[in-house]
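Case study B.
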Amino acid sequence: MIGITAYGAYIPRYRIGREVFRQAWGMQYSPGERAVAYYDEDSVTMAHAAAVDCLGNANAGGMEALFLASTTLPYKEKQMASLLAAAMDLPATVRTADFTDSLRAGTLAMSSALDAVKSGSAPRVLVVSADCRMGIPTSAREQIFGDGAAAFRFGHEDVAVEIEASHSVNTEITDVWRRNRDPFPSGWEDRWAILYGYLAPLQEAIKGLLEKTGRTPKDFSRVILPAPDYRSHQELVRSLGFDPKAQAQDPLLNTIGATGAAHAPMMLAAALESAKAGERILLANYGNGADAFALRITENIRKIKPFRGIAAHLKSKRPLGSYERFLRWREVVEVEGSRRQQPFSSPTVLYRESGWLLPLKGSKCRRCGLMDFPPQRVCYQCGSKDAFDLIPLAKTGKVFTYTEDYLTGAAFEEFAGTVVLDLDGGGRFRALTSETEAGETHIDMPMELVFRKIHEGAGYNNYFWKARPTR
Amino acid sequence: MKDRVAIIGMGCTKFGENWLDGPYDMIVDAAWEAFEDAGIEAKDLQAVWLGTQQWGDAGMSVANALKLHEIPVTRVENFCASGSDAFRNAVIGILSGLYDIVMAIGFEKLKDWGLRGLPENPGTAHPVLYSPTGPGYFAFSATRYMYTYGIDRTPLAHIAVKNHHNGNLNPKAHYHRELTIEQVLTAPMIAYPFGLFDCCTVADGASAAILCRADMADRFRKDYILVKGMGLANSPRNQSPLHDYLGFPATVAAAKQAYAYAGIKNPAEEISCAEVHDCFTWTEISNYEDLGFIEKGQGWKWALDGTTTLEGRLPVNMDGGLKCFGHPVGASGIRMHYEIYKQLQGKAGSRQIKNPRLGLTHTLGAVVSGVTVIGLP
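Model:
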C-alpha cells in the first residue's frame, strides 16, 4: 500500500479583511478575509513551516527525497528545495527537487513522489507545497489570493491515506499566465478561462478517474476541488454530480484565499484533520490540465496529527489592519529607506558555516557542558579548546531581554524587534523577532524560532532563524 | 606607573556636526591647541598614537595632516575605547624609556556618510547572525536592568537633563540646549527604552594630549597634570551565554587595574570628578556601579539625588558627556582627559567644580573599556 504517512500545514498569522480592499479601491469581489504572509515570509519559509508542522523540528520518520512545489519560488535559477533541506538539517543523500510554473505543481510533485515510492528509488518522500501570489492592485485576484503551505510525506509503511488511483490530463491553453518578468498574473476573459482552463480539464480528469476505478460520485464522502473563486467551485461541484453541502470540501476562499499550488494540498490537510477510517476522498487539481486522485482513509489516520494543522493555524490570527501595510510588505510600493548601510552578505561565509548556521546547531562543551551559539572553539566557561559537540538548538525559549530598534528600522516595518532568548535545553540566541507589534514583547515571553528571509544583501535572498511569539 | 608621566598640553575641537571641517582640519586644530598649550612644536614629538574607529588612513592620517616626518605614528582601534587606548599606549611609550615627549590624538569624521547612528563595523559583519546597532545593543542591558531593579525610564531621563545642563555651559559641546524630564520621556523612540534624548550624539571631532616624562614636566608648565593609574580590558563575557546584562565586566576590570596603580581604595571618596561613557543615559548609571562608586543596582538613585551634578559630591560628565558634548568615537577618550585636565587646572569656566584633586576618565565599547586616573602632582 502506498500513500500518505504524515501531513501538516501552515497559514500565516496575519489576515486582511476583504473590506480593506473596498475601502482602498471601492470594489469588493468576495466576502471574508485572506491570509497574508508576513513581510519576511515567502514560499520557501512557509514550506519550511508546513514541513515542521508535519514532522516536527527533528524530521520524525525521515525521508529519502524532498520535493518543493510552488509558482512563486524566489529564484528562476537556483534550487530552493536544497535551502529547505539545509534549514531542516536533512542529510546530503536526500534527493531534492523543485516543482514549479503550474498551479498543479503540488499535485504533480505528489504524483512523482508516489512513483518514487512505488519504484523504490525513494521509499519516503516529503512533498511541500507553498505559494505567495500577488494580484495586481484593484483586481479580483488581489482579493481572492491567499498565502499558505501544506506538507505530506508519502511512503509505504503505516499508510494513513492510501492513494488508490490517479488520472491526469494536460491542456495547452493561455488562460492565466505570468511571464518571467511579470510580478502579477494576467488572464484572458473570465468566462472563457473558467470554462476551458478550469471546468473542462477537471471534468475530464475526474471522469477518467471514475472510469478507471469504476466508482461514482456517491462512493466519495468528500471531494476536494480548489478553485479560483467561490462561484466556479460551486459550478464545478454541481456539474460533477456531487452534493455541494454534504460532499464538497470547503475551498477556504473566505478564510485563507486561493493559495495557488498549495490550494489543493491545504484543502486535503483540512479534510484529513476530520477524516475517519474507511472514508473515500476524491482530490483534484487544475492548471494547464488537471490531476485527479482517489484516496482511501485507513485506521492509521488516528496516529498521525499535524502539530497545528489547518484548524489551529486558522484560529491563530491577527488583523493586518491596513492596505498600505499590505502593499509595503509585498514591495508593491517603494518606501523611504532607513539611512543605514546596506546589509552585508557573502556566499563563502554561508557555505563555510553550512554545518551549523541554517541547521542551527550550537556547541556543547564536553568538559563543562556549556551550550553556546554560534559554536565556540574555545569554551567561554572553562576555556577548553575544540572539546565540543554540535547539538541542534531547541526551537523554543523565553525572552531574557529585548528591545525595539527604530534606528535599524526596515523597509517593511517601523522598528526591528530584537531579543536575547534563553533556549529551552540551554543556549542563548540573539535574534530578530518576527510578527511582534510595538510594545508586545516582554521579559519571560515564550517564543519559538521560525525560518525567515532576513534581507537581500549582496543581491540574493538571505535566510535565517527569527524569534516569534509562540502561536 | 603612578606619577611618572605628565600631561603638559591638551587640545580639543568643538564637537558636533562639523560640516565645513574635514578630518585633517580637526586633527590640525586639536594638535595645534595642544602644541600651543604645551609650548612645543610638532617637530618636538618623538612618537604619536592615534585613536580612531571608523575613519582612518593608518598612521598617515595624522602624519600627513601635521607633516610629522620620520617618526612612528601608530593607529589604535578598540571600539569606543580607541582614544583611551591611544592615550594608554602613549603613556606606555614614555614609561618604556624610549621617548620623552609623545602625543596621543583621537579623531572621528562621522558626518560625511549620510547615515543615522554609527556605521556598522565591516570587520565583524555576518550575513545573517543578528548584530545590534549601538542603541540596540545597550538597550538589551537597560531593559534587563530596569526589569531587575524595578525602575522606569525616569532615572535615565535625569541623566540626559543633567548632562545637557552641563553641556550648555560648554562652548565646545555639540548641543547647547537644556532639556526637561518631560521632553526626554516623550521624545521619539530610538531603541526601547532609549528615546532620542537618551542617546548620545553622533558627532565629528578631534582631541589631543601632549605627554612627557614627569621629571621634565615643569620645564613646560607649572600646572601640569600627572597620570596616576590606568587600565584597559577587553571582555568577551558580554557575549557569553552566562551574561546577566546588568553591567559591563570590561569596565569593572579596567577600573580595578587603574585603581591598583593609583592606590585608590575607595573610589567614590577619593575621586573628585569623573568623565564616563554615557553613550546612552542608562550606561552612565551602570558606569557608576561598574566603576565601583556605588553597589550594583543602586546607581539609578544617584541619577535622582543629585550626587553627580556639578554641585554634587562626585560630579560626573561636567563637560556634557557623550550625551551632549558629542561622541566622535576615537576622539572621546582624549576629550574626557581634556575636561579633567581643565578642571584640575581650575580653567573650566562656568562649569568649574570646587577643588578637584583626582579625576577619572572612562570609555566603554561594550566589550572593551579604558579607565585612566589623573591628578594634581
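The interface with chain B takes residues 338-341, 344-346, 349-350, 357, 370-374, 380-381, 400-408, 415-416, 418, 420, 426-428, 430-432, 443, 454, 457-458, 462-464 of chain A (CB under 8 Å). The remaining cases will be described in the next quarterly update.
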